[in-house]
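Let's practice the habit of predicting before peeking. Look at the sequence and jot down your guess about where helices and strands might fall. Then scroll down.
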Amino acid sequence: MDTPRWNDLVMVARVARSHGRRGEVILNPETDFPEERFQPGRPFFVLDGPRVGTLVARSVWFHRDRPVVRFDGYESIEQAEALAGIELRIDAADLQPLPPGMYYHHDLIGCLVETADGMAIGTVSSVDGAGVTSRLVVEGPSGEQLIPLAVDICRTIDPAQRRIVIDAPDGLLDLNVGRSRRVRQGRRW
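Done guessing? Here is the structure:
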């Protein structure tokens, strides 16, 4: 079996910290399907130095809607502490199909954002938030723009064509002009 390329995999969680003394860790899930995704016996890809390795979940339970996982080969708090901060990824082919009008964040990253009249705003570099509070983080010539991922604003979303067409309300595109410059200079607002 070929080892997948790290950048072709999809992140589904990040290890937050160890939990208890027997090798368990608490995960910060990056999925809308944590109960299905985190099951005993499920393998996850991890970056192990320069190469891609795997961790297999031995046991899983949930505490305050967060998975608590013990991986094969991890028996102590010291071993579990070494996992803090690592990303758990899966093959994109293993993702759940989404209903129409819903998109995985990784499908939106890299899409060109433009207005209905064809003015290019920039390219989606990330998606902040979840659900109704999601925002596209768009990098363009004017700096970083935050565009609410709302049906009234994002009129056309076509990940296959790598394109998002927006109908921006008055003032939205002026709101964040130069934001990335201010953040880099240490002035947050």
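How did you do? The two ends are 49 Å apart (CA to CA).
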